[in-house]
Amino acid sequence: MLHLNNLSRKINKLLLIFTAMILYGCNALIHTPTGSKNSTLGEITPYTSKLKQLPKPNEPVVVAVYKFKDQTGQYKASDYNSNWSTAIPQGTTSILLKALEDSQWFTTIERENIGDLLNERQIIKTTRQEYSNGQDKTLLPPLLFAGIIIEGGIISYDTNLLTGGAGLRYFGVGGSTQYRQDRLSVYLRAVSTSTGKILKTVYTSKTILSQSVNGSFFRYVDPERLLEAEVGITKNEPVHLAVKEAIENAVYSLVIEGSKDDLWKVSEENKESFNELVENQNKLDSINTTRFVDLKENLNRGRIGIFGSATGNLVKNDLLNSESKLGINFGLKFLISDFWNVSATASTFELANKKIFNKSYNSLDLDVEYLLFPQSKFTPFGNIGIGIISPSEGENKEISGKVHAGGGFEYMLSKKLGIRAFGRYDFGFSDDWENVIAGKRNDNMIVFGAGLNLYFGNRKNK
């Protein structure tokens, strides 16, 4: 009976922990869409409000859009079978017409289905003639003709520009996260109907981000009982909204750029506010050094960096029941180039085996580190190094050597400040870290942690 009570308490504790993970770590599950919802008006993007808030023009320009379509010819990617659904929505002409209308700088006329319009006008003429015995001489008003034709399309949809993820599993409990970044590009041009001259061309792009987070639990809580649980969330940015934002951005840019060349003019009372928008757009263009997948050319870590981290340390020695203990480290690094740097790290930490061994240690390490994407805000890295370790208390403070290898990732919050997470494995040169020499293997240690990097000094990218 006692054994069953203990087992029940263990299971209840595990279930409570996992429930807490679900409720607090996976907030999206609280709002799981289990019921039907009423239809709503379409979502807006940041450029929807920008278009609607543009100052009024001196006179709207009559424009025609014959076709604005997907020119990529791509189909949705599928890991399991052939997929004949297109990667890009096929109603992009409607999206463009809506953006032109929202700007209030253009009067749009129907040209995509001009055949339907002409047929309907012919039906009206025929009906009037037949049912009025030819007496109804009323003419239909003439069709508007466009001074400018808007052409272009979605010319690229690049998938898997940036992919990655991270995960950790320990004794059946773990989690992982993955992400993927795609990008689409839109070209828009204004063509004069009187001369055929291309008056202005603009180009915009939009990234599409997909993310997933998963957690799992797999443990034997008893020789005959297995507890298994999983939880996960996937978030995909809608392609339709990405297309809509890119097209609206193109229309917004077309209004601004066209006004610089006097293709169209703002009203006199709104000239001052419109000039401010033009100046702001010029500033954005001057600092727009974005490459693909948001790599910044001007992201430049300083030549010297200082860092500090909180660590977890798990000893792998000759004793049983190793425990993870906290530690801290501080260090100094020198960047040799964009990709390579060397660092020195001082650490203090504890190593322990449950109810058997617990001792404080100090270590000093020298590392060589390689950054995979040094000009990106997010970059994985790998490092190798050597070091020494010695107890910080007791009479026996013999110094031992070690080598280590590891890796992690760094995310730059700004040009000077970065946050990083890492893990490494230390291979000891001796078997007496815990003052017990047994077996054929030396003592080792697993280290994992997270901290901040602060960079100083100026250095040109190479």
TrEMBL record:
One of its GO terms (cellular component) is outer membrane-bounded periplasmic space. InterPro entries: Curli_assmbl/transp-comp_CsgG, OMP/PagP_B-barrel. Pfam families: CsgG. Keywords: Cell membrane, Lipoprotein, Membrane, Palmitate, Signal. It comes from the Bacteria. The keyword Cell membrane applies. SUPFAM superfamilies: OMPA-like. This is Curli production assembly protein CsgG. It comes from Faecalibacter macacae.
